[in-house]
Amino acid sequence: MQTKWYHSIWFIGLLFSQWYLILPLIPAIILTKQRQKEEAKHHQQWADSGFGDLLILNERKEAIQKDIQTLTDEKEKTIADLEKKKDKLLEKLKVAEDLEAIRKAIDDEKVNMEKFAQDKARFAEQLKMLLKEIEEKKEEIIVLDDEILNQEFGFYSPKYNLENSQVYKQRLEHLRNQQKQMAKEKRATHHSDDWTLSGSKTEGRKMNNENIKMTIYSFNTDCDSAISKAKFNNIDSIEKRIRGSYTKLNKMNAKNKIEIKGEYLELKLAELYLAYEYEQIKEEEREEQRRIKEEMREEQKALKEIEALKKKIEKEETHFTQEIGSLKSRLELASGDEKADIQHKILELEAKLALVEKDKEDVLNREQNTRAGYVYIISNIGSFGEHVYKIGMTRRLEPMDRVKELGDASVPFTFDVHAMIFSEDAPTLENALHKAFHHKRLNKVNERKEFFRVSLEEISDVVIQNHNKVVEFTKLAEAEHYRETLMLEKTLEQVAN
Length: 497
What we know:
Shape: elongated
Distance between the termini: 65 Å
Number of strands: 6
Radius of gyration: 46 Å
Structural class: alpha+beta
Strand order of the largest sheet: 5-3-4-6
Strand content: 5-15%
Largest sheet: 4 strands, antiparallel
Number of helices: 15
């Protein structure tokens, strides 16, 4: 509030201090009244302004506090000055008129102080209202900053837990159809139909219908925008945003006698959580599909390897069989030393043929037993650090091919193998290990990420409990490229220093 200099408290106080000169007292009283009127005018302007902006509220609060302090200081100073002057006058003047004048001045000052006390109480009440309004504005603030939300993040508890994404989709469609039906039948709002426009009820009804449509459209647009931005860490803020839109639109349309129903708001909030959980379960299903496809690719590669090996074995078997038949034909015509050489070659070929037949039998067993395979324990300390192991399974005939694939361009260093365990029931062994170390997973949300922070001794103990064959573990990870990289970095630091 900008105060004219001659309305300043210090100037009025100066005039009052010269009361005994009579003349300064009259303008002092007039200026006091003018100041009070000016303050009342400013107070009215403040009341009309609505205090919309928090910044202006704070500035006005500070100005009020400053004025209160100034009035308090001036009051104390004026009272002190008056008391001093009163004492001096009582000593100098014993005349009754002078004493009466002093009493009158003190009474006037008391009146002023009573007015000041009233003003102070009024200012204090205004300050209280301002502080309350500031708190209300803070409550309306909606936090959407990801960094802040991540700091405040808590686990989301599903509200619906439906069976699959199809069920969610059907429930969402039903919910949205309910909303459309309510809007279509004008059941989404409380409203008045007693409007006339230019004396016409028809035009009034048309105007009212347009206002209802605009209100519902605005609310739907706000809700759709908010729901599309829902994430694991801002779901509460999105709900607050929807409720804020509901309150704001109802306030704006109060003069039009239009209010969105609480029932319609609840449908929108239900849509928010259904839509969020629908997206979550779709992602889980996509993740499961990726896992199944990965297993199918592995299976196809294993079958391809088995088929190739079968053809190779069959080719070798045919070759050895034909060669043995040819040698036996020659044996009937041979004699002496030649016969002995042929018999020796036949024995060698029959021994090789027996090995080929054994390989053929093993391959057929692997083909028929779809659960046979290798469980591998591998690490990559350059990528994931010490004591982090990937525990996986492959049905490949050459399991190292799978390990090489895992160490492709997606990680900076290759994997080291600590154990390669063949099992007739590899999935069961892998599952036993995963279950035993579930609480030590690096990623506790996505179980396709088979990395565990655990020691090799713990892994070995679980393998022994679930596998009846001896397994050799390699404890030291070579991590050749990683260790060479560390040496190069150390050399470069020494050169730089």
